[in-house]
C-alpha cells in the first residue's frame, strides 16, 4: 500500500511582484517575496510559520489558496496541484480555506452571519436548503456561538466573535486544510487564548491540517506541531517548537527569539 500524500507540499516556490511605474514618479522596484520556499504538512498536523513583517508569510499563505499566482514552483494539496482543482463543489475551496487576520474586514458588512455561512455550504459543500439549516446549527455549536448569532451582522459582533465566524466559514466548505494568516493578531490577549483553544479543539476533533502563520513566537509555540522560520522570502530553519525556540541554530531565529519577552499562554 502506498502512503497518502502530505496534505500540503510546496516545492521551490518563487513569487516576484513586478515593478510598478506610475505617472507621478512613485515607481517601485520588483520585489522577490518568495525565493524558493519548500515545505510540507502531513494530514492532521499544524505547521507554524513565523517571521517578521515583510518576510513573505502572507504571499505564501495566499499562494496556497490560489489568491496569488506563483512565479515558479509547485503547490500540491492532497497530492494535486492547486491549479488543477476546478470550480464548484469539490473545488479548491472545498480542499483549502483561508482565515484572515482582520476578522471584521473579512466579513461582508451587508451580510448576516447566516448569509455568510450559507454561501460555502451551498456552493462548495453542495448542500440543499434542509441540509444547510442543520449544518448551520452544527457550525455555530462548533465555534461556541449561540444560534441567535446567525441573524447578526458583522457590526454587531466583537472581534473574537467575528473571528469565530471567520473560522466557521472556513469549516463550512468542508475543507481539510486551513491556512490561518495571523488569525489572532488583531484580538486582545485574553481573547487570543480562547480562539487558540478553539482552533486546537477543532483540529483534534476533525483531523484538520493547519498552516498557522504568525509573527508572534508565543502564539506559534502554543499551537504548532512543527515550526518553519521565514526570513526575507526563505525558510531558514525548521523543527519542533521546543527545539526551535529553546535552541535556535540560525542567527535570524536567535535574534527573533531573543527579541521576544516570555509570554505565558
Ligand atoms: N501585492 C503586492 N505587490 C507588491 N509587493 C508586495 C505585494 N504584497 C506583498 N508585497 C511585498 O512582498 C514582501 C512580502 O510581503 P508579505 O508576503 O505581505 O509578508 P508578511 O506577511 O511576512 O509581512 C514585502 O516586501 C511586501 O512589501
Ligand atoms: Mg502578513
How is this structure best described in words?
Helix 2 crosses helix 3, helix 3 crosses helix 4 and helix 4 (159-172) packs parallel to helix 5 (189-206). By secondary structure, this protein is α/β, with parallel strands linked by helices. The strands form two sheets. A six-stranded mixed sheet has the order 6-7-8-3-9-10, sandwiched between helices. Helix 5 links the parallel strand 7 and strand 8 (209-214). The chain has helices at 57-64, 113-123, 129-142, 159-172, 189-206, 217-223, 241-246, 251-258; strands at residues 8-17, 31-41, 46-50, 72-77, 80-81, 96-99, 177-181, 209-214, 226-231, 234-239. The chain has one domain (45-68, 86-258): P-loop containing nucleotide triphosphate hydrolases (Rossmann fold), CATH 3.40.50.
Brief descriptors of the model:
six-stranded mixed beta sheet; four-stranded antiparallel beta sheet; 32% helix; Rossmann fold; 265 residues; alpha/beta; 23% strand; 10 strands; binds adenosine-5'-diphosphate; binds magnesium ion; 8 helices
Amino acid at each position: 500500500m502506498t502512503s497518502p500524500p502530505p496534505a500540503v507540499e510546496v516545492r521551490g516556490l518563487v513569487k516576484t511582484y513586478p515593478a510598478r511605474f506610475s505617472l507621478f514618479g512613485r515607481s517601485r522596484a520588483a520585489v522577490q517575496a518568495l525565493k524558493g520556499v519548500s515545505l510540507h504538512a502531513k494530514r492532521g498536523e499544524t505547521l507554524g510559520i513565523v517571521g517578521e513583517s515583510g518576510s513573505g508569510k502572507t504571499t505564501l499563505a495566499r499562494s496556497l489558496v490560489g489568491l496569488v499566482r506563483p512565479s515558479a514552483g509547485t503547490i500540491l494539496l492532497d497530492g494535486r496541484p492547486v491549479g488543477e482543482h476546478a470550480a464548484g463543489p469539490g473545488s479548491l475551496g472545498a480542499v483549502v480555506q483561508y482565515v484572515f487576520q482582520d476578522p471584521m474586514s473579512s466579513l461582508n458588512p451587508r451580510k448576516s452571519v447566516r448569509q455568510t455561512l450559507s454561501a460555502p455550504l451551498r456552493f462548495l459543500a453542495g448542500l440543499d436548503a434542509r441540509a444547510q439549516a442543520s449544518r448551520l446549527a452544527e457550525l455555530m455549536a462548533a465555534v461556541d456561538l449561540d444560534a441567535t448569532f446567525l441573524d447578526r451582522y458583522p457590526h454587531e459582533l466583537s472581534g473574537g466573535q467575528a473571528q469565530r465566524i471567520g473560522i466557521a466559514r472556513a469549516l463550512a466548505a468542508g475543507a481539510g486544510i486551513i491556512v490561518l494568516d495571523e488569525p489572532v493578531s488583531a484580538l486582545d490577549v485574553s481573547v487570543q487564548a480562547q480562539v487558540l483553544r478553539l482552533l486546537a479543539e477543532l483540529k483534534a476533533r476533525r483531523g484538520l491540517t493547519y498552516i498557522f502563520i504568525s509573527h508572534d513566537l508565543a502564539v506559534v509555540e502554543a499551537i504548532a506541531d512543527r515550526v518553519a522560520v521565514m526570513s526575507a522570502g526563505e525558510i531558514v530553519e525548521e523543527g519542533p517548537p521546543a527545539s526551535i525556540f529553546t535552541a535556535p541554530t540560525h542567527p535570524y531565529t536567535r535574534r527573533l527569539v531573543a527579541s521576544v519577552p516570555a509570554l505565558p499562554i
